Amino acid sequence: MDIATILGIISGIVFVTWGILLDGDLASFVDMPSVMIVFGGTIAATLVAYPLSKVIEAFKIASHAFTSHDTEPEEIIDTIIGLANTARKEGLLALEEAADEIEEDFLKKGVMLIVDGTDPELVRNMLETELSFIEERHSEGQGIFEAMGAYSPAYGMIGTLIGLINMLKRLDDPSAIGPSMAVALVTTFYGSMLANLVFLPLANKLKLRSREEILRKEIMVEGLLSIQAGENPRIIEEKIKAFLPPKQRQGLQQQEGVEA
């Protein structure tokens, strides 16, 4: 579980609530018509812009923002080096048995393509095509949350305009102007909070998760093609380590030193 996402949303709500309570009344920020306008309008506009199936899928994808991937790039590198050593000692056909122990479908698919004797260029094209479609699917989910981040402040403003119109109808009662103005502005508050605490941050976190997954799969592609080319496992290791930032490379080297 990614504690940062949960902690960020909760702490954002807590600090905003705390700020309200320091010099105000929380009850004055609760207004059901405003909730209906902002939430309902945002969902309605999203359904107009995207098919229902895509919207439902986007909310499923949103769960990735609250979880962290169990398989780190370092573990993938270890797996690839193990496969490289097996191929060097026993031949490429020996990878078929090793593939049964691989849980990652993308990596297993690549291994089986190699075992079947598929042309290296075709292997690269097939795996990179799958990568591009994975990235496209991810971008659809991110785009939906970015759109919701744009719609919610807009509907907050619409709610404010509705409130102002209702307020102008009661100008003959000066005592109602202040409370009516406060309620009118609450919708803008809801829209801004939803956009800047939920929708846009979730879109950014999903982008980060997508980049992490694409990086893991790019490491797999490069490693598999190197194995198929018969390169030395040590050379393969150095090649795929280049995908990692310097700090992770140093950590991996230190871990190897301890194991040695």
Your description of this structure?
- This protein has ten helices and no strands.
- The protein has one domain.
- It has 260 residues and is an all-alpha fold.
- Helix 2 packs parallel to helix 8 and helix 3 crosses helix 7.
- The mean pLDDT is 86.
Secondary structure tally: strands: 0
Mean pLDDT: 86
**Main beta sheet:** none
User: How does the helix and strand content classify structurally?
Assistant: mainly alpha
Element-level helix/strand string? HHHHHHHHHH
Overall, the morphology is: elongated
What is the terminal separation in angstroms? 32 Å
Overall number of domains? 1
Q: Please report which band the strand proportion falls in: under 5%, 5-15%, 15-25%, 25-35%, 35-45% or over 45%.
A: under 5%
Identify low-pLDDT runs.
Answer: none
Rg, please?
26 Å
H/I helix tally = 10
The helical percent reads: over 70%
Secondary structure elements and their pairing?
Blueprint: H1 3-22, H2 32-49, H3 52-61, H4 73-90, H5 95-99, H6 105-115, H7 120-168, H8 177-228, H9 233-241, H10 246-259
What is shown here, in short?
The chain has 260 residues and is mainly alpha-helical.
Q: Which terms summarize this structure?
A:
260 residues; mainly alpha
